[in-house]
């Protein structure tokens, strides 16, 4: 084997370097040329954000963790076929979601390849899945595409928590490319929100995840729409494990649900709803039929989704269960576990705002002070007041209930692996205050 200095590749590079300077380019990329490069690669619109933009400061650590030399965030959109998304037949809608997701990832890869051809380093995180599941149930995504797209001027978030593009509406998927170069000009948020606040997304959602006042119930959306992803899959796997025979399994999971899970495992997981996107009439290319005849739009787009006979997956005791029973009595309520089992205190605290059920918290105004001991030590204050939840580090204010718990025991209790009474008897969990307040706390976070 030749010595390092005599290796053919090493010698070739050094010969080339002697002819032309191969140091990293410092000249900004021309914004017009870069935009055209992205459009030629398959993007339908694109914007550019400098890494140190204050509005995305909370994304900085994750971005440089993925690609330390990032200087510019290249945000782009790929359009979806909206009639496919609107179809009551979820097989049609899901085929569109998955095909568009593949297109978005291929577009991002093409952009990175073309930048590499001109000597610019870049990296493209996934548009959706796959994600970093070793972090689950914490933040599994590498880059938060939505706030970056808003910062880049590609739209604003609607009340349904989807980015609405001013021209294409919410029938888009988002991609982000991290670029090791600056550009000659950056783009900024548009000066209006394309969201019409028509509340059709509120009407279409079968689990009440979107409230008329703009409140969003993450748990309701996640449990139903993502039934065949992540925690829903975990819950299904546990249903198999808990069944000692086929008949016991069938009592928990019917044949169509088993077939649906097989389909997801074979052909990619299927979204159960996403009706909020289907019903949205915002965007220049989309709004025409809605403005021409609103009644007909509701009859042809929203009503078929509302009237669809289908199972709706809810956590027992959740706001979603109450909502479905009241507003969609013709749909079949399927009570399932959220499948979320935090394995760290950070995961537990991260999940509290996402799992909080404000209707279950009605009338509860209490301050809880947690002292965690053992392998993870931490002091936390959780305040539930006026149907909101606030989490703070340290002990703040006057506690209505004080909870001291061994961190490992607490996490096992949340995962239903440890009995609370036994933990109290062993003094691995201790409470100072009314036990009813602990029960009330649990009702706000059903799992």
UniProtKB/TrEMBL annotation:
UniProt-listed Pfam families: Fer4, SCP2
Domain 4Fe-4S ferredoxin-type stretches: 186-215
Tagged with keyword Iron: yes
Domain of life, per lineage: Bacteria
An example molecular function term from Gene Ontology annotations: metal ion binding
Identification of the protein by name: 4Fe-4S ferredoxin
Organism field: Stenomitos frigidus ULC18
PROSITE patterns noted in UniProt: 4FE4S_FER_1, 4FE4S_FER_2
Keywords, ordered alphabetically: Iron, Iron-sulfur, Metal-binding
InterPro entries (UniProt xref): 4Fe4S_Fe-S-bd (IPR017896), 4Fe4S_Fe_S_CS (IPR017900), SCP2_sterol-bd_dom (IPR003033), SCP2_sterol-bd_dom_sf (IPR036527)
């Amino acid at each position: 084997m030749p010595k390092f200095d005599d290796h053919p590749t090493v010698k070739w590079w050094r010969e080339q370097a002697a002819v032309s300077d191969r140091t990293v380019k410092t000249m900004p990329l021309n914004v017009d040329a870069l935009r055209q490069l992205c459009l030629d690669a398959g993007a339908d619109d694109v914007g550019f954000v400098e890494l140190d933009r204050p509005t995305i400061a909370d994304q900085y650590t994750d971005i440089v963790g993925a690609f330390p030399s990032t200087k510019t965030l290249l945000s782009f959109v790929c359009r979806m076929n909206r009639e496919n998304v609107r179809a009551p037949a979820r097989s049609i809608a899901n085929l569109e979601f998955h095909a568009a997701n593949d297109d978005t990832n291929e577009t991002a890869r093409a952009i990175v390849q073309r930048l590499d051809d001109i000597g610019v380093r870049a990296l493209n995180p996934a548009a959706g899945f796959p994600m970093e599941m070793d972090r689950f149930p914490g933040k599994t995504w590498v880059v938060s595409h939505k706030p970056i797209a808003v910062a880049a001027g590609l739209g604003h978030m609607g009340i349904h928590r989807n980015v609405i593009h001013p021209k294409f509406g919410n029938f888009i998927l988002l991609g982000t490319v991290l670029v090791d170069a600056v550009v000659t000009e950056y783009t900024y948020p548009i000066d209006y929100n394309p969201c019409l606040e028509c509340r059709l997304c509120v009407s279409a959602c079968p689990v009440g995840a979107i409230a008329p006042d703009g409140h969003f119930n993450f748990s309701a959306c996640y449990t139903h729409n993502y039934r065949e992803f992540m925690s829903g899959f975990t819950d299904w796997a546990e249903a198999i494990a808990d069944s000692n025979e086929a008949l016991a399994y069938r009592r928990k999971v019917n044949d169509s649900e088993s077939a649906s899970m097989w389909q997801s495992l074979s052909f990619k997981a299927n979204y159960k709803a996403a009706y909020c996107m289907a019903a949205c009439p915002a965007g220049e290319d989309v709004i025409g039929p809605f403005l021409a005849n609103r009644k007909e739009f509701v009859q042809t787009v929203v009503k078929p989704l509302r009237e669809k006979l289908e199972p709706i997956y809810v956590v027992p005791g959740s706001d979603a269960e109450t909502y479905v029973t009241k507003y969609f009595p013709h749909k079949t309520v399927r009570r399932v576990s959220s499948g979320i089992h935090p394995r760290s205190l950070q995961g537990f605290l991260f999940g509290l705002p996402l799992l909080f059920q404000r209707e279950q918290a009605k009338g509860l105004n209490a301050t809880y002070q947690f002292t965690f001991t053992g392998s993870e030590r931490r002091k936390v204050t959780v305040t539930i007041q006026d149907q909101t939840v606030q989490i703070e580090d340290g002990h703040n204010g006057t506690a209505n209930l004080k909870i001291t718990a061994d961190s490992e025991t607490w996490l096992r209790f949340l995962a239903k692996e440890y009995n609370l009474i036994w933990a109290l008897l062993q003094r691995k969990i201790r409470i100072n205050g009314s036990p009813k307040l602990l029960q009330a706390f649990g009702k706000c976070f059903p799992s």
